[in-house]
Each structure stands twice: as C-alpha cells, then as structure tokens.
TrEMBL record:
Residues 14-26 have a biased composition (Basic and acidic residues). Residues 1-11 have a biased composition (Polar residues). The chain crosses the membrane at residues 32-53. The keyword Transmembrane helix applies. Residues 1-26, 56-76 are annotated as: Disordered. This is Membrane protein. InterPro entries: DUF3105 (IPR021454). Keywords: Membrane, Transmembrane, Transmembrane helix. The keyword Transferase does not apply. Pfam families: DUF3105 (PF11303).
Amino acid sequence: MGSAKNTSNAQRKARIEEMRRAERSRERRNRILTIAASVVVVAGLVVGGVVLVKSQSDDKDTSASDSKTSSGHFVTGTDGVKTWKGKLGRTHVTKTVDYPMEPPVGGDHNQVWMNCNGDVYTKAVNNMNAVHSLEHGAVWVTYNSKASDADVKALAAKVKKTPYTLMSPVDDQKAPIMLSAWGKQRTVKSASDPDVDKFFAEFVQGKQTPEPGAACTNGLAQ
C-alpha cells in the first residue's frame, strides 16, 4: 500500500517536472523569438533611417550641384573683358542649372552642346546646351531687344563666317550686345565695334578653352 502510494507520488512529481521543463522550454523559445523579432525591427528602423538620411543628403547634394554650379565673381580687365574668378563646374547634368550670370560663361551643363559652327539662332537657346558649346571653345554672341536690327544682321553675318561661334537672343541680359566665352565676357557698343574682332581673335578656340578641338557640329539645333 505504502509502496503504491510512493510510486504514485513519484510519477506525479515526474509529470510535474516534465511539465515544468516543457514550460521553461516554451519560455526560452518565446524569449528567443521576441529578441529575434526586436532585432529585426531595430535593424529595419536603422536601415530605413540610413536610407532616409542618404536620400535627403543626395537630394541636398543634387540641389546644391544644380543651384551652385558656379561660385565667384567677375573681374574686369583694362581691355574691358570680364574674367570669372572662382569655380566653374563642368559636370554633365539633366536638371536645370541656375547660373550666377546671364548669359552664363561656364558651369555644369547638359551633355549635348548647341551646334556652334557659325550657327545663328533666332530664338533663345537653352543655357545648359550653350555652356557646353563654350566648353568646346566657342564664342557666344547674344543680344536683347535693345540691339538694333542693323547690328543683329551684321553680327549674324560675322558669326556665319566664323567656325566655333553661335548667336542667339537673350532677353534678360543687361547690355544690348554681349560676347561670351568660357570664363570670359564683355559688352560691345555695336557690330562695328573693333572689340568684336578682338574678342573673336582671342577667345575662339582660345587658351581659356577647357576642351579645345571638341566638336561644334552634330549637337543640338533649333
């Protein structure tokens, strides 16, 4: 009788111990799963945060590149030619570039240049394409509504005879007639102003050219 009772107690204790072991095992599994889930969540938050910060940083960098492609200022020489002192970016970009001068004399630009083999455009051209032409050593003749028809016709005739030049209207420029090359710019009084020929002679494929001999054809045309 006593032996049977002892056996029953032993079996009950064994079952209880087995249940306790099973419970402890479940608790361990649950803790492991909870910790693993927490790690995954934290890792996801970290990765998401890094991606967000990087995205914001990239947007900021892109914006900075677009809006601050050039920095510096003009210095006017005794000959009346203004030279840009500072940074002129040369990166090919697709977004609109906000140049600090009008017309621009350099900076980041579109990968396609305006044809500049004596090309005369009667409508405004994209600054980003024209700047690429300057990089190739072209001189860009620009005028606004204050320029006389006679001067516009005479300048157009000169441009058509001169490789590595182009001409187009720029309504927002300060002077009626302006001449631009990479990092160089000046105003002239008229088409017959001797400074026109001087500027052409010095800056068409001049020493300032970042890419001398690069093409001025097979680019963009109106």
